[in-house]
């Protein structure tokens, strides 16, 4: 029984084929395949080109799908590369090469040219000296790798790649780089949108994580005098140790960020280099953007995938079979095709052509594994399925290496081939079957590397009937793809039914009402460990790497997630990436994808009066403060204290705690943190107000909300960064300012008490109309601003409120503040307060921000009181004494809310929106159906519903698929 059995072509497949890959008048897959076959056969001897063109067409018809760049550009007049991705070396100087590595801006130019010609680019930024390090040539201080990554990010955003798409990028930083913590959190607030990021992790670091040891963050660049005075020192090997950290504490930041923000991924560098067939002549520090190809400087990935569903005989029957012989035949021809790609492709840079010529790397893999297993009646998370995947991978390995050896006998080995070195040293090649090793010694080898499991994205839609992507299980069995139509066709959306190949074939064979077999399981029904186990089953047979995104649902427990990367390292994997749906910068989730505008947060243009506008709101589900005010405790309460040591003096931080009783307390009882305050003459001005508002956040029944608040404070920067001892052992950490340092101590204590544990209700977070600050377009937006002058403290600054238009239940609109900020001369701790209150402003119930502002009206400061006008709606002119700058700022914000008709001048809501309303129960998702999930804004439908799935961008609202294969 054929696997296609007269299945008609899906409309979405034809649409993607024509839109993304077809050239000229091509309309069918075979017309396109013929073009590619002829183009690659041009590398053959003239007398044999027709024969090989026919063989190359046959291989494609039997299931081989060259990568997207090959399918779209081979045989055309485009000067676009046929290679998907590259690694670009980046040095430490601005422009001067060092040890053969180009300077930063030379690397930027080379990367821009590579992306312009159609290639994605990966980088290792670890050579760039840390922020604050000494730059002797200019007598200045370095800005660090993150700042330069922003330059690369904007360049990628600007340069349009061949084929009208933006280039993809991967940024890597070593785990022992002094700026590693800033790198871990670089994307927390939506920065570096054109990057995937991964940490290059060493075995020594992972061993320190397991042993709870200390690691040195070091670099060859000399620290500044200030950094040396703070404890930096030079090791015997010449490296400068900037500071030491507990490995486990750093690792916890990695896992927490990955859980909350889906990045960074991890690359196990020692494993990558130990397994490298060319361990004797290269060192690898980075990968291509989807991480299936660890590559040396200027290395490339020449990719192709074979659709495994095409080799399943008698699918779903009691005795289905996988055609190993037919599969091996296609592997051999596909290997030759990819080798030919290296000879016919245009190269963006001469260094890339030289690197490819010396080693002739290719990356043949498979796609459709998840569907093939279903068709073989094997459930993805069972051992029998992993055994089958291992066997398929073994057949692919043996056939590819045998074919490459035969090519070497015909065409010669790759120039850097040395049989003795290649087949020894513990590399992948040293573990090949003895028969293959003997053949390679006798005939040589054409390609240094041959295998890679890549994401397939749109090529699966266009050429494989939407078979599951790469090594992944199916993400959903069916969904509706809503594609935006151009204005010339009337605008709006056109809908396509998109069906998974295995699901579609099953329905075709057994009827629409037939119950699905037990083998039908989707990605989100599997545990993270089951995802990783499949990679571990296949990895021993793949000489480069595997693109694998472990997709888990939003409510996946952190306890089950936190050891995932450690398990991957213990399983000897080369890396791993995860995705858990999350809200991102500027996101407002519109579950109905038929939006009229491309962005759910936008600037509405009305002459010069432009307002940010939110099209839809979530339901109001703000549930419960434990106590609206400080609880009454006549007998007192315990408090935990810590000495905050900052450059301008020391002060005491106190965290008030309340002993829990009942079943929540546990066997030995535990304390609940419920307030924060600071004490000491050297505390920064404004910090006590920040502590006061954070105390109210501690009293919520929402750990996610508290994490969001502490995250917002973690990057508040002041005039100069400083190092401060951290509990429990006093090891120093670098902080951008005293607000960030104080927040880190609060976070540590809350984690100790279990107050940040996942898995509970998220009533406050659920009630936000936007988790992150709504962003404007280039036309900007109106904002409300007012000047503040406190002569007692010599402060003069401007308070600014950004505002947004929200819909109301009656069909009207209301204008609301959504963010606040300061400019001028003001206490820098107020930046932290502004971040906290900005989040409060985006809780839909205005009673929430009203409660926070009223609490600040009585904040006093010694010698900080002053006389200032009382804001008034009726024009009344009078002045009064204000106890502090913060109190006056709170009064001004209340006044603006009163001007907008939301609060009265006393700070009380004019309409009750349900502060104590209980959250509604979540509806269970139907099995196998595509569920809308929060993510990045989609370029197609505008909803903030684009997640990272199977190595590709994928919109869960409209079905848009990013090009990644």
UniProtKB/TrEMBL annotation:
Gene3D superfamilies linked to this entry: 3.20.70.20
InterPro entries: RdRp_reductase_class-2, RNR_lg_C, RNR_lsu_N, RNR_NrdJ/NrdZ
Alphabetized SUPFAM superfamilies for the sequence: PFL-like glycyl radical enzymes
Protein keywords: Cobalamin, Cobalt, Deoxyribonucleotide synthesis, Disulfide bond, DNA synthesis, Nucleotide-binding, Oxidoreductase
Keyword Oxidoreductase appears in the UniProt entry: yes
Cofactor(s), names only, from the UniProt record: adenosylcob(III)alamin
Enzyme kind, highest EC tier: oxidoreductase
Pfam family of the protein (one): Ribonuc_red_lgN
GO molecular function: ribonucleoside-diphosphate reductase activity, thioredoxin disulfide as acceptor
Entry EC number(s): 1.17.4.1
Occurrences of domain Ribonucleotide reductase large subunit N-terminal (ranges): 12-78
Sequence ranges assigned to domain Ribonucleotide reductase large subunit C-terminal in this UniProt record: 85-579
Catalytic activity, as annotated: a 2'-deoxyribonucleoside 5'-diphosphate + [thioredoxin]-disulfide + H2O = a ribonucleoside 5'-diphosphate + [thioredoxin]-dithiol
Protein family membership: Belongs to the ribonucleoside diphosphate reductase class-2 family.
Function: Catalyzes the reduction of ribonucleotides to deoxyribonucleotides. May function to provide a pool of deoxyribonucleotide precursors for DNA repair during oxygen limitation and/or for immediate growth after restoration of oxygen.
Name of protein: Vitamin B12-dependent ribonucleotide reductase
């Amino acid at each position: 029984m054929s696997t296609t059995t007269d299945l008609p072509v899906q409309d979405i497949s034809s649409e993607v084929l024509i839109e993304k890959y077809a050239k000229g008048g091509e309309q069918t897959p075979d017309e396109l395949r013929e073009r590619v076959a002829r183009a690659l056969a041009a590398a053959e001897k003239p007398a044999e080109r027709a024969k090989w063109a026919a063989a190359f067409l046959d291989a494609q018809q039997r299931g081989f799908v060259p990568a997207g760049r090959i399918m779209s550009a081979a045989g055309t007049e485009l000067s676009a590369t046929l290679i998907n991705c590259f690694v670009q070396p980046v040095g430490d100087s601005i422009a001067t090469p060092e040890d053969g590595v180009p300077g930063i801006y030379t690397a930027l130019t080379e990367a821009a040219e590579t992306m312009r010609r159609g290639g994605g680019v990966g980088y290792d930024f670890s050579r760039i000296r840390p922020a604050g390090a000494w730059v002797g040539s200019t007598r200045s201080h370095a800005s660090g790798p993150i700042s330069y990554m922003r330059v690369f990010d904007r360049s990628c955003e600007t340069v349009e790649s061949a084929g009208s798409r933006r280039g993809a990028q991967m940024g890597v930083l070593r785990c022992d780089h002094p700026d590693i913590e800033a790198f871990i959190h670089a994307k927390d607030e939506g920065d570096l949108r054109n990057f995937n990021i991964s940490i290059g992790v060493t075995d020594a670091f992972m061993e320190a994580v397991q042993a709870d040891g200390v690691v040195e963050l070091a670099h060859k660049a000399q620290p500044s005098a200030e950094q040396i005075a703070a404890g930096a020192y030079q090791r015997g090997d010449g490296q400068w140790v900037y500071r030491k950290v507990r490995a486990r504490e750093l690792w916890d930041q990695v896992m927490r960020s990955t859980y909350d923000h889906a990045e960074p991924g991890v690359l196990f560098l020692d494993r990558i280099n130990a397994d490298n067939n060319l361990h004797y002549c290269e060192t690898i520090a980075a990968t291509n953007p989807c991480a299936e190809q660890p590559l040396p400087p200027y290395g490339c990935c020449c990719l192709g995938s074979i659709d495994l569903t095409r080799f399943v005989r008698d699918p779903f029957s009691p005795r289905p079979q996988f055609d190993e012989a037919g599969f091996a035949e296609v592997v051999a021809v596909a290997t030759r095709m990819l080798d030919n790609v290296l000879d016919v492709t245009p190269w963006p840079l001469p260094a890339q052509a030289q690197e490819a010529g010396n080693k002739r790397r290719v990356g043949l893999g498979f796609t459709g594994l998840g569907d093939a297993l279903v068709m073989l009646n094997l459930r993805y998370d069972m051992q029998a399925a992993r055994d089958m995947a291992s066997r398929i991978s073994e057949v692919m390995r043996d056939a590819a290496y045998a074919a490459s050896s035969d090519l070497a006998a015909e065409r010669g080995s790759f120039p850097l081939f040395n049989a003795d070195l290649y087949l020894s040293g513990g590399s992948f090649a040293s573990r090949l079957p003895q028969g293959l090793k003997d053949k390679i010694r006798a005939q040589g080898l054409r390609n240094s590397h041959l295998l890679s499991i890549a994401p397939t994205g749109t090529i699966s839609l266009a050429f494989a009937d939407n078979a599951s992507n790469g090594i992944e299980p199916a993400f959903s069995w069916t969904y509706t793809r809503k594609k935006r139509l151009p204005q010339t066709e009337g605008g709006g959306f056109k809908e396509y039914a998109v069906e998974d190949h295995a699901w579609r074939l099953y329905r075709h064979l057994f009827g629409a009402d037939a119950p699905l077999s037990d083998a039908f399981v989707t990605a989100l029904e599997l545990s993270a460990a089951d995802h990783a186990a499949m990679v571990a089953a296949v990895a021993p047979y793949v000489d480069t790497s595997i693109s694998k995104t472990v997709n888990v649902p939003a409510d996946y427990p952190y306890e089950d997630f936190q050891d995932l990367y450690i398990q991957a390292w213990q399983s000897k994997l080369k890396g791993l990436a995860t995705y858990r749906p999350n809200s991102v910068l500027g996101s407002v989730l519109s579950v109905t994808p038929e939006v009229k505008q491309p962005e759910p947060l936008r600037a509405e243009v009305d002459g010069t009066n432009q307002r940010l506008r939110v099209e839809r709101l979530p339901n109001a589900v703000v549930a419960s403060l434990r106590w609206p005010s400080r609880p009454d405790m006549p007998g007192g309460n315990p408090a935990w204290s810590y000495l905050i040591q900052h450059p301008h003096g020391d002060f005491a931080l106190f965290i008030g705690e309340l002993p829990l009783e009942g079943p929540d307390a546990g066997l030995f009882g535990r304390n609940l943190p419920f307030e924060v305050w600071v004490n000491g003459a050297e505390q920064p001005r404004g910090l006590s107000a920040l502590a006061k508002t954070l105390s109210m956040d501690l009293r919520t029944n929402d750990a996610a909300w508290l994490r969001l608040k502490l995250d917002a404070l973690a990057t508040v920067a002041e005039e100069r960064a400083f190092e401060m001892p951290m509990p429990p052992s006093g090891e120093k950490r670098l902080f951008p300012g005293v607000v960030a340092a104080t927040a880190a101590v609060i976070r540590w204590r809350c984690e100790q008490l279990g107050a940040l544990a996942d898995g509970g209700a998220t009533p406050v977070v659920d009630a936000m109309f936007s988790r992150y600050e709504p962003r404007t377009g280039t036309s900007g937006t109106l904002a409300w601003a007012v000047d503040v002058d406190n002569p007692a403290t010599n402060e003069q600054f401007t308070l600014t409120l950004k505002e947004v238009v929200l819909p109301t239940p009656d069909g009207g609109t209301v204008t609301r503040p959504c963010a606040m900020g300061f400019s001028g001369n003001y206490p820098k701790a107020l930046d932290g307060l502004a971040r906290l209150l900005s989040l409060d402003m985006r809780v839909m119930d205005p009673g929430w921000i009203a409660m926070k502002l009223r609490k600040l009206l009585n904040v006093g400061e010694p010698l900080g009181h002053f006389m200032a006008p009382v804001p008034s709606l009726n024009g009344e002119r009078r002045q009064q004494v204000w106890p502090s700058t913060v109190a006056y700022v709170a009064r001004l914000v209340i006044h603006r809310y009163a001007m907008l008709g939301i609060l009265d001048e006393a700070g009380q809501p004019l309409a009750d929106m349900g502060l104590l309303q209980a959250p509604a129960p979540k509806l269970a998702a139907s099995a196998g159906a595509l569920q809308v999930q929060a993510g990045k804004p989609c370029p197609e439908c505008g909803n903030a519903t684009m997640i990272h799935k199977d190595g590709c961008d994928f919109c869960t609202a409209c079905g848009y698929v990013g090009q990644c294969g």
